[in-house]
Design a protein that fits this description.
This protein has 15 helices and 12 strands. A 5-stranded mixed beta sheet has the order 4-7-8-9-10, sandwiched between helices. A 3-stranded mixed beta sheet has the order 3-6-5. The protein has a two-stranded antiparallel sheet with strand order 1-2. Helix content is 42%, strand content 18%. The chain has one domain. With 377 residues, the chain is of the alpha+beta class. Bound molecules: iron/sulfur cluster. Iron/sulfur cluster binds next to helix 5 and helix 14.
Length: 377
Amino acid sequence: MKYTPRQLSFAQYLLRRIGFLRQKDIDVYLQHLLKVKGRYHFNPKAKNAFKSWQYSAKACIDALMAEIKLKGSPTEIKTRKLNGKNWTATSLSRYAFCSAAFSIGHSFEPAAATSNEWIEIGECLHQSLRLGVRYNQRNADPDPFYQRGWQNPAITKMLRSKLVHVGHGEKPQLFQNEETGFSGSPDYIFQDRDGAYFVVEEKFIRQDDPMNPTALKLMREELAGTLEAKNQDRYQVWEKLPFYFFESHIIQVLAYLYNLIEYPLSYGYLVYWLYDFKDGEPYVFKAGVKKIKLDEKSSDLYQQYKLKMGKFMQKGVEAFDAALINPKKCAACSFSPFCMQKTRRLDHVWLPYPSDALRLFPSEFPDALRPNLGHQI
Ligand code: SF4
């Protein structure tokens, strides 16, 4: 899984045009971009069956080119009006993720360059594989390959509880709290068998399924008679897969717990569905669940972000620590095409995000790429 030498050279050039200063950042960003956008494509015309699945990094180059186009004409970007002091659970979560992402999300309309395949697939999975669909189709998916995606005692508990609110669909109910300026609609609210109400927020996370060998490996292992033993090893790896729950997602659940007044919420769950691709189709292969309680620790965490976000909304500017930039996180961020902070050149972030800050930087075009560029990249 990699770029061709010409693709790599061109991608590095594009990131220097975007403003990246450090070679290490460029390397990490490009490697992570591959995980986000690189794909195996099936070529039915391949003469050698072992070469039917071919890897392509072209989508990574396309994404960087789209960003160059966007930053080359910042006046064409459609801006958004700020919504006073009102805020949503999603915006607080976004602030906890990154203050630049929060500002960009509030300032610009999404553009073609911001399309993020991860997010689009996540949204598509949200519609077809989400807990609500499962709630209505309990005991479906008899195929153990897919069934294992639902194996989790907390999921079983949710499926046995009473569903009282679904936050997606045509016109989901929007909850508002005039006192705090909050509005939002959680993915689900359930009532458990003891009568307590709880909120559920679900996220789809792209990850490699250890039990999903590539077609290439599968064929080789079948031919060598080692497939069964290898699958047992893979199952062990699958069982031990760790989950790391992001603070920004936990904050989102806390925002519902502290602001929703229509239901007396006692606790919440953050559900991570890990998904991968099989024969080009996304599927969920494991569920991770974190229970979130209303205690002193969670109250401190929530208040800390709420206070900082409030100050930022009031002042319209705050310090930005460029040393904390993580190029892996930036490569997967859907606001990255608009962002100048990821270059580590800015030590502040503004609200609204100033479109005149978006720009490109001069960089020498690699000599090796000059001939037939259009055909070779
Ligand atoms: S690209 Fe990085 S710095 Fe910019 S908004 Fe996203 S996470 Fe924040």
